[in-house]
Amino acid sequence: MKHKFVNEDKTGNREALIENTIRRHADMIYRIAYQNTGSYDDAEDILQEVSIALVTKNAPLDDEEHLKRWLIRVTINKCRDLHRHLKVIETEPLEDHEDVPAEEKDGVMEELQQLPEQYRNIIYLYYYEQYTLQEIAQILKKSINTISSGLQRARKQLKNILIEEGFSHG
What we know:
Blueprint: H1 14-37, H2 40-56, H3 64-89, H4 109-112, H5 117-128, H6 133-140, H7 144-164
């Protein structure tokens, strides 16, 4: 079911509409970027890049659900672009040499970093954004069977990681 976005500005001002969109979805974009990059700084950069894309590209601003899917797709693509760029220049992130304060760690988000990218995105979209398998298949442009088996594999791998790390059910 598609929901039409209500322009809170009432003036039809595209800039205000884009600013409102960024405010509403910044946390989601940041979380997706962080779980794909493992870096707070890179996640902030991705958020900025997605915001720029929202301004410069033809984003579907009149349909909230389509817009959210568009933002997720653009965020994942920007993360992939970053990974490709980093492979080319072969840099070493500063995070490898710094201790991240405990209060900045996001529970299971850290363990998600240990999963392959395709599994991280499926888990995130399923549990955090509460998309159905069919919706995830559309967003990631994969078959529903691929998404379903990916979710099963991701759960199993994540469970093993949590057991290895000493997490208990409780």
